[in-house]
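TASK: fixed-backbone design
INPUT:
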């Protein structure tokens, strides 16, 4: 018997309450409790009350517990992987900086000699290749979305300048995004591995090199997520080709087509340094992986906290309904005892 049916059944028998004052108090007090409990959630900060039966609440609590275990495990796995990825990024930076200085000195010497180096040839920009590096998996917050929005913003800038473009997509998330948009020209789809290697970087570098040397594109830009710390990562644009110490590459009309936050432009204009193609790609892959793992660790931590809060709310709702059911059974027993007297 439900509490509402029990309420109608007891209140329809005034003789029971007249015979025993104690029984009237036993009937009146339980009916005040549900009204007070239904009004208390309106004064609390909970967004909405939970309406479900005991069985449904038990199933939801068990489901939330299982989800919490999964997110906690994924958080620990991401934390273990991000430590190795962070070490790879930090250990590779001294080599990259030394290699940049060597290449800068070589490029300075080439400027005074009559030597044709294809990678340093600056020509008016008619077409730009964008190498977009995304992740292979989801459940990492806005990691992939932020980078794709960065790529869309750069594409709009190139369209406003009247410069053609093509995409080299690296990563399953970016591949699926561009496959669903056939109006965006894509030169090649590549998939990264669980750990970036020199072989993968060389495959991207060979494709970029062939596009630039054959003059299919006049400039190559790398879009990836730069690893700053475990709680911060920034999507950036880095010029790969051409290797120019001037820091400005213009189109046919003389307009600068460099991005406002171009990493190579910032380095060459402030410090006079250059970068190297394959090492830059490998470093970008490593930093992108470290940023993805850090974002996944943060997202799974937030998901675990949300699961704990939801489990707490469901447990409170379950205990309220269970207590109401016990109170109803006690009312039935008391009402039956009063009916026999």
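OUTPUT:
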């Amino acid at each position: 018997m439900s509490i509402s049916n029990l309420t109608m059944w007891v209140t329809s028998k005034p003789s029971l309450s007249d015979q025993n004052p104690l029984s009237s108090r036993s009937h009146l007090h339980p009916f005040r409790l549900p009204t007070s409990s239904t009004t208390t959630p309106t004064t609390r900060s909970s967004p909405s009350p939970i309406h479900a039966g005991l069985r449904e609440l038990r199933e939801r609590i068990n489901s939330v517990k299982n989800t919490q275990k999964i997110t906690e495990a994924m958080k620990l796995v991401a934390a273990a992987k991000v430590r190795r990825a962070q070490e790879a990024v930090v250990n590779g930076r001294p080599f990259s900086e030394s290699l940049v200085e060597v290449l800068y000195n070589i490029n300075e010497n080439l400027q005074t000699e009559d030597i044709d180096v294809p990678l340093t040839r600056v020509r008016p920009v008619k077409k730009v290749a964008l190498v977009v590096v995304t992740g292979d998996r989801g459940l990492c917050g806005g990691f992939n979305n932020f980078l794709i929005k960065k790529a869309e913003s750069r594409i709009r800038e190139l369209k406003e300048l009247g410069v053609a473009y093509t995409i080299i997509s690296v990563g399953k998330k970016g591949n699926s995004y561009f496959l669903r948009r056939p109006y965006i020209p894509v030169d090649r789809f590549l998939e990264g591995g669980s750990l970036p290697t020199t072989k993968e970087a060389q495959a991207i570098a060979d494709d970029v090199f062939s596009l630039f040397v054959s003059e299919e594109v006049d400039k190559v830009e790398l879009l990836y997520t730069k690893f700053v710390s475990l709680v911060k990562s920034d999507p950036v644009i880095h010029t790969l080709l051409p290797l120019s110490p001037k820091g400005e590459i213009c189109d046919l009309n003389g307009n600068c087509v460099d991005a406002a936050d171009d990493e190579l432009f910032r380095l060459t204009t402030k410090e006079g340094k250059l970068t190297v193609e394959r090492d830059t790609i490998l470093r970008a892959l490593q930093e992108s992986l470290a940023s993805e793992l850090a974002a996944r660790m943060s997202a799974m931590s937030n998901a675990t906290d949300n699961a704990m809060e939801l489990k707490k709310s469901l447990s409170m709702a379950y205990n309220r309904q269970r207590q109401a059911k016990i109170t109803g059974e006690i009312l039935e027993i008391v009402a039956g005892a009063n009916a026999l007297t």
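COMMENT: Residues 1-44, 265-277 have pLDDT under 50 and may be disordered.
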